[in-house]
Design a protein that fits this description.
Layout (H helix, E strand, L loop, with lengths): L18 E5 L8 H11 L5 E5 L5 E2 L2 E2 L13 E4 L6 H11 L3 E4 L9 H15 L4 E3 L5 E4 L4 E4 L10 E9 L2 H14 L2 E7 L8 H9 L6 E6 L5 H13 L4 E5 L8 H4 L1 H5 L2 H11 L3 E2 L3 H11 L10 E5 L2 H13 L9 H10 L4 E2 L3 E2 L8 H13 L5 E7 L5 H17 L4 E6 L3 H9 L3 E3 L2 H18 L22 H10 L7 E4 L2 H11 L3 E6 L12 E5 L2 H18 L7 E6 L5 E10 L3 E8 L2 H4 L4 E5 L4 H10 L17 H17 L4 E11 L6 E3 L2 E5 L3
Parallel strand pairs: 1-2, 1-5, 5-6, 6-7, 10-11, 10-12, 12-13, 13-14, 15-17, 15-18, 18-19, 19-20
Antiparallel strand pairs: 3-4, 8-9, 8-11, 16-17, 21-24, 22-23, 22-24, 25-26, 25-28, 26-27, 28-29, 28-30
Helix pairs in contact: 2-3, 5-6, 10-16, 11-16, 13-14, 18-19, 21-22
Length: about 700
């Protein structure tokens, strides 16, 4: 297992060492310094094991050495199991000796406070001086089932070892890794390797993912993450997996509360940290699992290595109720279940008049008395329905061994004829029967709803693996930002300079001039107070719509000035903005939030109830081209309102996409002080008439 280094450290060689030193080795297999040695002895690790302990000549059958300097050779990997205070010196000795990687079991570092953090920094400095990598500290280590390398003291293996498989686990939590491995063992799932990163002073989950992408013995990567330290490195690892067509399933825990910036920006409140991580995972081809059960369900099916890019589900069921349950589950996850062709329905209906051959295809339990007919239904589902994924609901009918063998034979014929499809069954049966179905290439799920979730995930992987090259982002002029959050008028000037259209408007400094401009612009108009100190004008009554006369314009100017002074006495008033009131368009919200880990993330949704109540928004990492912007627009549930629903004219979606893509480039080019952008609303006029920013907030960090 080798991947490129980070931060100047050397290459990562961790899973298949030829020699391992254990610093702080113990004769007691129950102690931290002894358990890894016992595990490796039991699992037949073929490499050399060098226990280091100045007080022992032999440890658990292996010759012991008094110090690192006494070792007969330079080990590939060293395990450190000594008190925290002794770790920096041990790391320095190993690094000078030329050891490639140290696995630091010891705790008492950054996880316990400032003093521990200083000790951790000292340890890392000693390693970096000689190009040595560090896993941990505070880690449960590494497991490689293939080589028998159990560089871990995890107690999960005291109750049994996992069987060999092609799934890799990259996890920040050692204890939860043990939980996953135990659950896999109980389900009969195979494991290739597991890397538990602990404090991540050096080697991160991203490094582990990247290494597993390059590992020919790993087909599927399961990830448990509590927090991502290096956003770009994480994205590079996910992209490498996507290009290699290796599925990555991520369980991301620790949903962050929205920070103080959410109070200042509507966009920021939408794009909370957890929403951003979901966006990043989806954009780069990973699937997010909500539970351990879901993670393992998806990983189990992914090992079949069938990832339909245009996934459809055909369901064959002996129970009408089971079919309805599956259809509901498919709708919940957006998995298409198109009906069987009418001619095929007719043929199946003629064979069994009581059947419902639409999809789900309910052949009823009667078909179990005519198993050749059951096979005919299954064959038609594959051939005539041409479904990319097929789920057969047999419930408890497969329990009898003799009967299940016949069912397997009929389904097996279909699987052999259509090996490019996903084949799953939902049964309740003995372990032996389940194993037999699995051996035939039929993925087994007791709960059909769980099967549907896993099948949908395979389609998500397929779409990610088949992604086509994207258009380049537009060329946008670089703009110097002011030193502090600008007023709406200044914000719109900046937007105009990068090619984003704003509503026709003028900034006015007197009541009489306001009336004159309003008359020239044509009624009705909108009047808004303009101040860099009043970002949310509507909260103080600082926006007045439907101003319909010169007299009303004069009076409204005075009213707005009075309201501003009453609510924010010290506010710097630049004047009143007179804007043409746009009619006949669709209100949208366009924005950006600068995520501390992943950088600028664009946000889009329809305005009003769609964003406030339904949270019908989509996000994308910046920058991107018009094609991606169009994908965003078309992906929201409210998209039909932009496409001419209920007889309304189609909106100028292309102009809206241009705003989104230009904003995404501007967000990347702007300095880090630009925390968020809030364009709310953007009015999208009928097709060919453009899209215009009506209100704009560019929120810059204070100080």
């Amino acid at each position: 297992m080798t991947t490129k280094s980070v931060a100047g450290a050397g290459p990562l060689k961790l899973l298949t060492p030829q020699s391992v030193a254990v610093i702080g080795a113990s004769v007691d297999p129950a102690r931290i310094g002894g358990r890894a040695i016992a595990y490796m002895a039991e699992r037949g690790f073929k490499g050399a094991v060098y226990p280091v302990n100045p007080n022992r000549a032999e440890i658990q059958g292996f010759k012991a050495y008094a110090s690192v300097g006494d070792l007969p050779g330079t080990p590939d990997v060293a395990i450190i199991a000594v008190p925290a205070a002794s770790v920096p010196a041990a790391v320095a000795d190993l690094a000078k000796r030329g050891v490639g990687t140290a696995i630091v079991f010891s705790a008492g570092f950054a996880e316990v406070g400032a003093d521990g953090a200083l000790l951790q920094a000292k340890m890392l400095e000693a390693a970096r001086a000689h190009g040595m990598r560090i896993l941990g500290p505070n880690t449960l280590g590494v497991v490689d089932v293939r080589s028998g390398f159990y560089g871990t003291f995890a107690s999960t293996f005291l109750s049994g070892f996992p069987k060999l498989g092609r799934i890799g686990i990259a996890s920040q939590s050692g204890a939860y890794s043990g939980h996953l491995i135990a659950a896999m063992r109980e389900r009969g799932m195979g494991l290739a390797s597991c890397v538990m990163t602990g404090n991540e002073t050096d080697i991160t989950v991203s490094d582990a993912i990247a290494a597993m992408v390059l590992d020919d013995g790993i087909d599927v990567i399961a990830v448990y993450s509590e927090g991502i330290k290096d956003g770009p490195a994480f994205i590079r690892a996910l992209e490498a997996a996507r290009v290699a067509k290796k599925p990555v399933i991520v369980m991301k825990v620790g949903r962050s509360r929205v920070g103080e910036e959410a109070v200042r920006s509507h966009t920021a409140s939408i794009a909370g940290s957890d929403a951003v991580i979901s966006t990043i995972l989806a954009e780069h081809g990973a699937v997010r699992a909500r539970t351990t059960e879901e993670m393992l369900d998806i990983a189990h099916l992914a090992t079949r290595r069938v990832y339909p890019a245009k996934n459809t589900l055909g369901v064959l069921t002996v129970s009408g109720g089971g079919g309805v349950l599956i259809a509901d589950a498919a709708e919940d996850v957006g998995l298409a279940m198109p009906p069987m062709p009418m001619d095929a329905q007719g043929r199946l209906k003629a064979l069994m008049p009581i059947a419902s051959p639409v999809n789900p295809i309910d052949c009823t339990a009667q078909v179990l008395n005519q198993l050749d007919l059951f096979g005919t239904f299954a064959e038609s589902m594959a051939r005539d329905g041409d479904y990319r994924s097929m789920l057969t609901f047999l419930t408890y009918t497969a329990y009898a061994p003799a009967f299940s063998a016949k069912l397997r034979a009929e389904l097996g014929k279909v699987r052999e004829r259509y090996p490019d499809r996903l084949h799953a069954v939902s049964i309740i049966a003995s372990d032996e029967t389940v194993a037999a179905f699995e051996a035939d290439g039929l993925a087994v799920y007791e709960d059909p709803s769980r099967a549907v979730v896993a099948i949908a995930a395979m389609g998500q992987f397929g779409e990610a693996f088949a992604v086509k090259p994207k258009l380049a982002p537009p060329v946008v002029p670089r703009v110097d930002l002011p030193d502090a959050t600008p007023s709406e008028a200044v914000a719109k000037t900046i937007l105009s300079s990068i090619g984003i259209a704003t509503s026709p408007e003028r900034l006015i400094g007197s009541a009489e001039a306001t009336a004159e401009v309003a008359v020239a612009m044509g009624f009705p108009v909108v009047l808004k107070i303009v101040s860099p100190d009043i970002m949310h004008k509507s909260e103080i009554g600082g926006v007045v719509l439907d101003v319909g006369s010169a007299e009303q314009a004069r009076a409204t100017y005075a009213t707005l000035i009075e309201r501003a002074k009453a609510h924010v006495p010290d506010a710097r008033i630049e004047g009143v903005l007179v804007a043409r009131q746009l009619r006949g368009g669709v209100e949208c919200i366009v924005g950006m939030k600068r995520d501390p880990i992943f950088g600028p993330v664009a946000v889009f949704g329809l305005g009003g109830v769609f964003v406030e109540v339904m949270n019908d928004v989509v996000m994308r990492q910046c920058p991107f081209g018009v094609d991606v912007a169009l994908e965003m627009i078309n992906s929201i549930k409210g998209a039909p309102l932009l496409k001419g629903a209920r007889g309304k004219p189609k909106a100028d979606i292309l102009a809206l996409a241009e705003i989104l893509s230009r904003l995404s480039v501007f967000a990347v080019q702007a300095r880090e002080e630009l925390m968020s952008i809030d364009l709310n609303p953007v009015i999208v006029m009928p097709e060919g008439q453009g899209a215009f920013v009506v209100d704009a907030v560019l929120d810059l960090a204070q100080g």
